[in-house]
């Protein structure tokens, strides 16, 4: 399914072919409206087309459909470059999260080794507690990072819940063991 912006740009470009030269005469607002009317079968798309193009100085100053099409393609190119930058930031930030979760996995494997060996001491609890901050760090970095997007928020929250639960269980075991030992 093509995005609404891609549809609008395609229709604006196609409008260059269908709009008569008479429509190109007049102020830029009428050129934008005529161009959008020629390519929009739906009111919602028409409103979107007029809205985004009217906000762009190049489109607002266009004297014909070619100028409007040029502005629409320029806007789209700018948006694509902006999206590419967000993706680049996300890749970097998600790679950092991958490292965080790799380290978290190693720490939790060490906790499992301690549990299986019957070592329910403060070290095992401390290792589990240390693992809790890692998913929070990933969440924080994604929210406050350059991308300002967190595509793994649910997973980070789930991991936080599980680590907190495991830590609480281990703390309970250590607490019971210390009460028996005193």
Total discrete domains: 2
Q: Specify the number of helices.
A: 7
Radius of gyration: 29 Å
Any low-confidence stretches, pLDDT <50, length ≥5?
14-28
- Global mean pLDDT: 77
Q: What series of H and E elements makes up the topology? A: HHHHHHH
| Biggest sheet details | none
Helix content: over 70%
Distance between the termini: 68 Å
Shape: rod-shaped
What is the tally of beta strands? 0
Alpha-beta content class: mainly alpha
Determine the strand fraction and express it as a percent band: under 5%
Give the topology.
Layout: H1 4-18, H2 28-39, H3 43-54, H4 57-60, H5 65-116, H6 122-144, H7 153-181
Helix pairs in contact: 1-2, 1-5, 2-3, 5-6, 6-7
Domain Pectinesterase inhibitor: 31-154
InterPro entries: Invertase/methylesterase_inhib, Pectinesterase_inhib_dom
GO molecular function, one term: enzyme inhibitor activity
Q: Could you walk me through the main structural features you see in this protein, from its secondary elements to its overall organization?
A:
The chain has helices at residues 4-18, 28-39, 43-54, 57-60, 65-116, 122-144, 153-181. It is 81% helix and 0% strand. 26% of the residues are buried. The longest helix is centred in the middle third of the chain and has 52 residues, at 65-116. It is mainly alpha-helical and 182 residues long.
